[in-house]
Design a protein that fits this description.
By secondary structure, this protein is an all-alpha fold. Helix content is 74%, strand content 0%. The protein is globular and about 25 Å long.
């Protein structure tokens, strides 16, 4: 997974689970090393449970960037 794909996937997760946190989208665009922080924020403040396909996406992100 390259950085462009990472940013696209993190942006998707933020928009779906924390749509009011545009600051996290800006953060991942500026600093791709902030993945761990952003994933923890999504997990902490999400309003709905993760869908199965999103779990798979999170696993892929974690494998490459954590």
């Amino acid at each position: 997974m390259d950085k462009k794909t990472l940013i696209k996937n993190i942006t998707y997760l933020i928009a779906k689970y924390l749509n009011e946190r545009n600051d996290l989208i800006e953060l991942i665009q500026q600093d791709s090393d902030s993945v761990k922080y952003i994933l923890s924020e999504i997990n902490k403040y999400k309003s709905i449970e993760f869908e199965e396909k999103d779990y798979s996406l999170i696993k892929d992100i974690s494998f490459y960037y954590l």
